[in-house]
Design brief:
It is a single chain. This protein has about 240 residues and is α+β, with helices and mostly antiparallel strands. About 30% of the residues lie in helices and about 35% in strands. It has helices at about 30-45, 75-85, 85-95, 140-155, 185-195, 205-210, and strands spanning about 5, 20-25, 55-60, 65-75, 100-115, 125-135, 165-170, 175-185, 215-235. Strands 2-4-3-9-6-8-7-5 form an eight-stranded antiparallel beta barrel, surrounded by four helices. It is globular and about 50 Å long. The termini are close together.
Length: about 240
């Protein structure tokens, strides 16, 4: 199977068994650019490594030093097969081109709920905001309840942010985290939404108040990225 480059991943596809998400620190904007190109070359010069790897996406951090990696898999076995037989040779090429990459935390996730674009919304995201929520201890029911609380707030918001395109809420398989992969029209649209009337994204409503005061949340963070590279197996392979 050969590699096909795409404008963005299909985040809501129904054949994804798990997602791996991670970041790496490469130090400077120039090294961000060099690393994305090294990843492109390392993958384009080889056949697609496994049918169970459904997509691989890389985004460039607004901070000028990080990259965000997002991979969709059919299941755990596909990831383990790739880890044993296809990962090291690609990483070796990338590390040779850009020495000193620091690979940071890797999270194993499942997609739980998505807020999809409205029908006919053809906007391409100029920004991806990755929102991470950490909970005190493992509790899979709590993860999902927190996401459901967010959806209630979204559905009752009298003035939703106009620059938002979609949101895809993932729960970690260890029960401790939620990750929202949120597509925005631009970084400025996301910044404007954060600076709006509420405490973060959302209006000042009781529903958003329940999100913001949800018990058991011990940490949160948001990082903005620019879409850079997305690829999958060629459709006719």
């Amino acid at each position: 199977m050969s590699v096909q480059f795409e404008s963005r991943p299909d985040l809501a596809r129904n054949d994804v068994g798990l997602v791996r998400a991670s970041t790496c620190d490469v130090g400077t904007p120039e090294r961000q650019r060099q690393t994305v190109e090294a990843i492109r070359r390392a993958w384009d010069s080889r056949e697609w490594p496994h049918p169970g790897l459904l997509s691989y996406t890389v985004h460039v951090g607004e901070d000028g030093k990080t990259l965000f990696h997002y991979t969709q898999w059919s299941g755990e076995q596909a990831y383990q097969d790739f880890f044993r037989h296809g990962r090291d040779e690609r990483n070796a090429d990338i590390d040779a081109a850009v020495p000193g990459i620091q690979r940071l935390g890797l999270h194993t996730l499942e997609l739980y709920r998505s807020a999809l674009p409205r029908e006919g919304d053809g906007r391409e995201p100029g920004c991806v905001a990755i929102v991470g929520i950490e909970f005190e201890g493992a509790d899979k029911a709590r993860q999902r309840d927190w996401v459901d609380t967010v959806f209630e707030a979204l559905g009752t918001d009298p003035a939703p942010a106009p620059g938002g395109i979609s949101g895809h809420f993932h729960v970690s398989t260890d029960g401790t985290r939620v990750l929202n992969y949120a597509e925005w029209q631009s970084a400025q649209a996301h910044a404007d939404a954060l600076a709006g009337s509420g405490d973060g994204i959302g209006s000042r409503t009781p529903q958003w108040g329940r999100v913001q005061s949800y018990p058991g949340v011990v940490g949160s963070g948001v990082h903005r990225y620019t879409p850079a590279l997305s690829m999958g197996p060629r459709a006719d392979a």
